[in-house]
């Protein structure tokens, strides 16, 4: 048995997914614009700096992507493990609890290692910044700083949006599975709102005019 409220919840979830999809599309444009700025900055630095100084810049920018993504990945995995542990009660199997605690311990260690990598990266950024300060004009230097700042910020924002889309799609899938099969099979006209799956496919919903 299902209710109109369930259908409304599904429609609401679909609308939220569409908003998130729009945010992701806008974010992709921002990333492309910032990457374009980065290409201009890189070409300028290659032209002005010594080869070994340019190599330092290239390595720093390449590692910035890797370290930020590593921290985001470990933070997400650690949060999921902590969420599982928070659901355990006194009757939870001791072996299962120990397994998850061991996972948490391992991830905490990896996260601490990643933080040390980030601290080392911050020191390298200061070195690169000092080098570039000897070559770039004020406007050029501001472009460099903006590119680096936005590169990290956009990586973080992209991960947050992707996680929200994934969670929203999982919630939508659960709600759709709660509907009777004949309700889905007998509807020929799709609802105008569309949900977006993690694979990029569109998920359609039957109209809300059905008698419940």
UniProtKB/TrEMBL annotation:
Region entry Disordered, spans: 192-212
A Pfam entry, by short name: ASD2
Principal subcellular localization: cytoplasm
UniProt keyword Cytoplasm present: yes
Gene Ontology terms describing biological process: actin filament organization
GO cellular component term, pick one: apical plasma membrane
Alphabetical UniProt keywords: Cytoplasm, Cytoskeleton
Domain of life, source organism: Eukaryota
GO molecular function: actin filament binding
Location in the cell: Cytoplasm, Cytoskeleton
Ranges where the ASD2 domain occurs: 1-180
Family: Belongs to the shroom family.
Name of the featured protein: ASD2 domain-containing protein
Source organism (scientific name): Aquarana catesbeiana
């Amino acid at each position: 048995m299902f209710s109109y409220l369930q259908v409304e919840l599904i429609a609401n979830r679909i609308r939220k997914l569409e908003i998130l999809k729009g945010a992701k599309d806008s974010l992709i444009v921002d990333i492309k614009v910032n990457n374009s700025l980065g290409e201009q900055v890189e070409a300028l630095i290659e032209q002005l700096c010594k080869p070994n100084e340019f190599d330092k810049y290239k390595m720093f920018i390449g590692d910035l992507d890797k370290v930020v993504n590593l921290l985001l990945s470990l933070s997400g995995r650690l949060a999921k493990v902590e969420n599982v542990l928070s659901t355990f009660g006194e009757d939870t199997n001791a072996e299962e609890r120990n397994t998850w605690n061991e996972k948490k311990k391992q991830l905490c260690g990896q996260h601490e290692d990643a933080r040390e990598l980030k601290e080392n990266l911050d020191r390298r950024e200061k070195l690169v910044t000092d080098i570039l300060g000897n070559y770039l004009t004020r406007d050029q230097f501001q472009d460099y700083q903006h590119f680096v700042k936005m590169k990290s910020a956009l990586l973080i924002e992209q991960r947050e949006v992707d996680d929200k889309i994934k969670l929203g799609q999982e919630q939508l899938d659960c709600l759709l599975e709660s509907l009777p099969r004949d309700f889905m099979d007998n509807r020929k006209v799709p609802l105008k709102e569309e949900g977006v799956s993690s694979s990029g496919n569109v998920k359609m919903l039957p109209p809300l005019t059905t008698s419940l």
